[in-house]
Amino acid sequence: MILGSIISGCGMEAVQGRTDIEISSVTADSRKVTPGSLFIAVKGFTADGHRYIGKAVEAGAAAVIYEDATMAAQYVPDIRPADAGSGKSGQDASIRTGTASGDSPVFIQVKSSRYALAIAAANFYDNPSRKLTLVGITGTNGKTTTVTLLYRMFTSLGYSCGLLSTIANYVGDRRYEAANTTSDPVTINSLLAQMVGSGCGYCFMEVSSIGLDQDRVAGLEFKAAIFSNLTHDHLDYHRTFAEYLRCKKLFFDNLPKTAFAITNIDDRNGMVMVQNTKAQVITYSCRSIADHTCRVMEESFDGMQLKIDGHETWTGLIGMHNAYNILAIYSTAVALGTEPQEALIALSRLQPAPGRLENLRGPHGLSVIIDYAHTPDALENVLKTLRDVAPSRTLICLFGCGGDRDRSKRPEMGHIAEKMADRIIVTSDNSRTERTSDIMDNIRSGMTPAGRARSLFIEDREQAIRTAIMTAPEGSTILLAGKGHETYQIIGTEKRHFDEKEIVTGIFGEMERMQNAGISGNGRKN
Question: Would the pTM count as exceeding 0.90?
Fold first, then answer.
């Protein structure tokens, strides 16, 4: 594609070189530069792309976009401003070519490299989001469940769909690994282009607050945006809750008037999210009057009987938080043209997303629940659900907190576990470069002396899981919170294989063999 077409709308401030040259790829990673690439120097949190301009040029970059003129000065020849005095904020300056020619790359200065990366990626892949129905969801909890089930639902209705989620990305039924909740713009647009090429009509996408703040979804055209809820998370990045909210709200502020803004009005920020949107607002609620409403009629470990807009349906999911997720899915499907009855039938066939309240049944009537809950609100929701469904069972909560992340939520999660569980085991999550013992001490600080007395603190998560299961009274419910779908654990800088389903299944197998041999969990003959 021609460079001039790729950089249209990128917010250029100065250009040196011809813009009618052919570009073979767009990247912000100097290691991926090949002859003919457009390299975009982005300031990151651990590395600054401006430091790698030289390497990109050596690798054959045909053009370089940069933001920081001071950082780029050693690599950029004499730059000529392109109508720099026009004062048109947010608009492209007109292009004046300088003297670069031959093998010299074109150098382009922009106001924001992150924004330019997103726009350039969308342009390079011919703006694929405009060629399918793109649906995004933002919020603290429920994003993965909602987009995964929307993907499954619309697939079951006969549509070819794509999915961009924390767990994995899908182009039709082809699976690709996901590195972030919201991928980088090049990856997003590349996958969207593959979806278009494969005949997909829909894509369902998680949109994180960090992704919004970093302009990863700039240039994408959404047909619908869903707001689930807003609670305590990512304050290590955003610093304040107000900033966290502002970033989430950007999603709805930037929607076109042809889109739908679908919001949970039971959350205190539900209407705040859509107060400045140009999109058509659709509300949903489980507690009050809204465009779409839901009530939980019955609930067990096997699922829930719901009444949605006055019509009853069954779901294999459990918990009030999942009632909200199901209602968001229904509201979105109807907004996109699905007949209500057809949507209800499709909802009744859906199974939980991986690592979301997955129930593994074992010997002695034990139920081990694996869930991704890693925020105070999510942990409280899951524990409340398990308590409500089986109030007479002993409830054991095993959890940890991620290292190098928001520390303020750790004592709050310790307090919630103490308040709602009969037994608590505090262990490691992804400790990263923090000491696990320090993280556990942060959690411990939110507990009372009585709560600490009925808690175990075991750093090794596999040993903690074994202890929880082997010492659980008959008929107990054991929640393993925090890892969910993840099949790894990050300790230090090492990413180790760690699959809780494998571990639990193995322990259950040991218990069954012991039971058959007449040995109890404590190693004694029955």
Answer: no
